[in-house]
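Reviewers of the previous submission asked for a worked example of the structure-prediction workflow described in the proposal, so we include one complete record here. The input consisted solely of the amino acid sequence. No template or homolog information was supplied to the procedure at any stage.
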Amino acid sequence: KNSTLKTLNLDGNQIPNQVLLRVDTYSLNTQPKLKNEIPRIMLNDEALSELDYSGTEEERAETNDVSCIVLSTALSGSYVVQSVNLSYSAIGDPGASYLADLLSTNAIIKTVLL
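From that input alone, the workflow returned the following structure tokens.
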């Protein structure tokens, strides 16, 4: 386990999304719910029409740019998820950019709370 690597930017590469998800999933240890749901999202599990990774005003969710990028990648092929709640999260410009790209191509997602 590498405990010193803080950032791994793989933008603009030729690595398939499946490989990127495996790499990024290792950094999701702080967001176990998302880590456990990624395979179900990719399999279009009909029980996951609504996703909630929100925090509270007092305590921000552990959802960050990395987890948002992984989630956006997983949702790119989803035809089940209609609502995603990421309110009170720690998502910055990189995560928001991936989310915007996702929403420009996925017409199934109707609601996103930030």
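The chain has four helices and three strands. We consider this example representative of the routine output the project will generate in years two and three.
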